[in-house]
Amino acid sequence: MSNKLLEPSQGLPDPADDPSPLFQPLTIGRFQLKHRIVMAPLTRLRADGPNGIPNALMAEYYAQRATDGGLIIAEAAPIDRIGRSHHACGAIDTDEAAHGWKRVTDAVHARGGVIACQLWQCGRQASREANGDQTPIAPSAIQAEGHPAPRAIEHDEYPDLVQRYVDAAKRAINIANFDLVEIHNANGYILDQHLASFVNQRDDEFGGPDLENRMRFPYQVVEGVVRAVGADRTGLRLSPFGVFGDIDDADRIKTYGTFMQRVAPLNLAYIHLVEPVPGHPQPHEGNTLPLSLETLREHYYPKGVIIGCGGYTPQRAVDAVRSRGIDAAAFGRWYISNPDIVYRIRNKLPFNAYHRETFYLVNDPKGYTDYDFADKTAKDAVAKVLASTEPTAKATAVKG
């Protein structure tokens, strides 16, 4: 990229004074990480065609950002057609898409990395243009601002919806060779819609004012995926303070905290929580607990591994890990513009600026694979990996 493109439009994060807390090992499920800097899931729209088949460009992108003993959580992967919000998202709803992902995971593994597939169904945030002109589904027929009107899920559709998550998880592990799956229960998508009291207004056992009912479908998904691929390969993402997707809840701390308590006995590999940041709601009247991830850990999930995400700078990440509020820190936008972010943090080097206008360029390497490296050995290493990880023979189809 040109020097002009790398000029920051605003101040870059200061390097951490002492990054060593981020470079302690961490066990997540069956995997031993060598550091605690995680790549967050980032929608980038570089897959091929309306079926979202991952390609060589995506393999290069993820190989650039892979590190020895580091965790990448890949972009959200649609588990079915009706739940898609965009074309060109790397999907996991077909064996063909899973085989495309196999080239990506091969490249990450060749660099010593660990990679998770995020399982995604958008619910009422789906796009009719991307989902085959189907009416999106949601717990209740309540429209989100800026999205098409959904229909309420029929009671007898729930077992099939759970099975779609299970089948996608099996594809991710058995065919695409991901190390883990992460269930996307955040950002106002279909599972989050079920937890939220202002969105889920069903009158059956899958919703309404009773929190136990609103948790039922998300819990069935988590339990089903755990049974299919193992708790030590399963993560869960939640956004307790998020408003994306026109989402809201009468008591966020209770709702998300109780759900964390509910899944705790399953011994998941990790829970991935989005930090409260400016612009997110404050606790409703009567909620006296502080608005923070520390609250959720202390009161609801004290023993499990928590990955935090949400506008971290290196110093904020160090402070959060040092305080034990989180166990690892996920970086998003800064990981886009700094493929060697782990090297930069370890060596207290400045970051490249990111350029938001390139985030969602369809099938375009600009702002995707052309950011500069501070680690001058990294590009050669990536090139060798890509040359050695040609598309592999198809794996065994999903069982059961």
UniProtKB/TrEMBL annotation:
SUPFAM superfamilies assigned: FMN-linked oxidoreductases
Region called Disordered, residue ranges: 1-21
Stored CDD domains: OYE_like_FMN
Ranges for domain NADH:flavin oxidoreductase/NADH oxidase N-terminal: 22-350
Top-level taxon: Eukaryota
One term of GO molecular function: oxidoreductase activity
PANTHER family for this protein: NADH OXIDOREDUCTASE-RELATED, NADPH DEHYDROGENASE 2-RELATED
Stated name of the protein: NADH:flavin oxidoreductase/NADH oxidase N-terminal domain-containing protein
